[in-house]
Specification:
Layout lengths: L4 E9 L2 E8 L7 E11 L1 H9 L1 E2 L2 E2 L4 E2 L3 E9 L11 E4 L2 E2 L5 H4 L10 E2 L17 E4 L3 E3 L6 H4 L2 H14 L6 E5 L3 H12 L4 E6 L2 H9 L5 E4 L10 H15 L5 E6 L4 H10 E9 L11 H5 L4 E4 L7 H9 L9 E6 L3 H10 L6 E5 L1
Parallel strand pairs: 13-14, 13-16, 14-15, 16-17, 17-18, 19-20
Antiparallel strand pairs: 1-2, 1-6, 3-7, 3-11, 3-20, 4-5, 7-8, 8-12, 9-10
The protein binds zinc ion (2 copies).
Length: 364
């Protein structure tokens, strides 16, 4: 009997994506087999593609990227009751162990034995969705209403990040909110804040086009274009203080109760601390250099909280509802669409970062 195969985009190393036939696995009892219809590409995929690694995770065996996906259920494992063939789902790419202390107390994003789709963190890697067929635990395949398109479905995962970040921030509707970084995650965080009734959002970025986009989408009331580097001879510390002052003056001198930092850049983290109101909260969403110089003194004297976030737990349902109800419009964020066969081309575009790129999605 000949083995069944399907097409996959395999990353063999830096800038080396090949379309190949791979063996098709049948779903395990707790899994569903999914035909991915749309996969969003983000910074993580970009790192794997451009360098053949993401931080300390190196591509040793061919890796199928893709962890922001929506697709159609084409087969179900013997134990699966909640899903059936033909169902449309958004895929939550986390594969927690479901047995450790975090998993049994609802903090499964912090699972000690976490595996993640489209990541080389495990060896052999856990393959992602840039392929024609893909098996995933039914528990982490969330039903998608017919009113949500496939490409919108691919934005559920990054929106789940934003929902978790805003939840951790303790944001209130009357807060003044500062979002540092107007990329996809920053825009989605602003959108979630808006859905909570926030009327005062300032967004900051180095790219004026992104800021204009945020404003045009109604996600920012005020914007501030931050220069890439300090003035000549200006100390970093002074630069951060000066930027914070300018950002606050843009907001009619009002300090920010909630700061959502989506760049991971040390300067921006410090600007966030300086711009925070007493008892304000700085949420660290962006993943930057693991070692940074942070003005803890400035935070301490005003009881500013630094809050970390790691992916999400139990936020996919909320993210899907936000899209389905129209409270968060994700369609305008999808600026580039490619077919699975153009996976390498799509990844090249994400690496090249054209000015109009917000989110690139691969459909099949
Ligand atoms: Zn991602
Ligand atoms: Zn666990």
């Amino acid at each position: 009997m000949s083995e069944t195969t399907h097409l996959a985009a395999l990353l063999h190393g830096a800038k080396d994506v090949r379309l190949e036939q791979v063996p098709t696995a049948a779903p395990l009892p707790h899994q569903v087999q999914i035909r991915p219809r749309a996969t969003g590409i983000c910074g993580t995929d970009m790192h794997y593609y451009s360098a053949g690694k993401n931080g300390m995770f190196v591509v040793k065996n061919p890796l199928v990227l893709g962890h922001e996906a929506a697709g159609e259920v084409v087969a179900v494992g013997s134990d699966v009751k909640a899903l059936k063939v033909g169902d449309r789902v958004a895929i939550e790419p986390q594969r927690p162990c479901s047995e450790c202390k975090q998993c049994t107390t609802g903090l499964y994003n912090l699972c000690s034995n976490m595996k993640f789709s489209g990541s080389a963190s495990a060896d052999p890697p856990v393959q992602g969705s840039l392929q024609e067929l893909y098996c995933h635990a039914a528990e982490y395949a969330h039903p998608l209403p017919d009113s949500v398109s496939w490409t919108e479905g691919a934005i559920v995962e990054p929106l789940a990040v934003a929902v978790h970040a805003v939840k951790r921030s303790g944001l209130q509707a009357d807060n003044s909110v500062l979002v540092l970084g107007a990329g996809a995650i920053g825009l989605l965080c602003a959108a979630v804040a808006r859905s909570k009734g926030v009327k005062n959002i300032e967004m900051v970025d180095v790219d004026p086009a992104r800021l204009e986009f945020a404003k045009a989408q109604g996600l920012a009331d005020t914007i501030f274009n931050i220069p890439l580097r300090p003035n000549e001879g200006e100390e970093k510390v002074d630069f951060c203080m000066r930027m914070a002052k300018d950002i606050i003056s843009q907001n009619k001198e009002r300090l920010f109760e909630t700061i959502i930092e989506c760049t991971g850049v040390e300067t921006c983290v410090n600007i966030g601390i300086h711009a925070a109101a007493p008892r304000g909260r700085v949420v660290l969403v962006g993943m930057g250099s693991p070692m940074q110089s942070i003005r803890v003194g400035s935070a301490a004297v005003r009881e500013v909280d630094l809050i970390s976030v790691w992916r999400y737990a139990s936020t996919f349902g909320t993210a899907i509802d936000l899209i389905a109800s129209g409270k968060v419009a994700v369609k305008p964020l999808v600026t580039h669409v490619f077919q699975l066969k153009q996976a390498a081309e799509a990844l090249d575009v994400v690496v090249a970062k054209p000015a109009d790129l917000i989110k690139c999605v691969i459909v099949s």
